[in-house]
Amino acid sequence: MASPHDRSRKDEDEDDPVDRMISRTGCAEQHYAVQECMAEHQDWRICKSQVQTFKDCMMNFQIARKEQLMKQRQKTFPESAPS
Question: Minimal CA–CA distance to 27: which of 59, 64, 67, 68?
Fold first, then answer.
């Protein structure tokens, strides 16, 4: 059994909750493009197109997720559907 005091990690990205969350959105590639641009240029203004692409991807995911949740809600609570 591993020691609870052993703080070393096999792969830091492996347990990163932000990376896991972004991966579930389908926008990981765009996120990594923003990270690479920022690492290279260290100026977000140079990375505006990558940031916008990532933002658009996340917005599309949020819209699709909202629609999915609304459909689930209508199936569960049909009386709450808008008239």
Answer: 59
pLDDT, position 5:
54
So where are the chain's domains?
24-74
Query: What pLDDT is recorded for position 53?
Result: 98
40-81 per-position pLDDT tens digit: 999 999 999 999 999 999 999 999 999 999 999 888 887 755
Helix 17-25 with 28-41: angle, nearest 10 deg: 130
C-alpha neighbours within 13 Å on the C-beta side of residue 30: 19
Give which of 15, 54, 58 is closest to 33, Cα–Cα: 54
Taking the C-alpha atoms of residue 19 and residue 57, their distance in angstroms, rounded to an integer, is 15
* CB 4, CB 14: distance < 8 Å: no
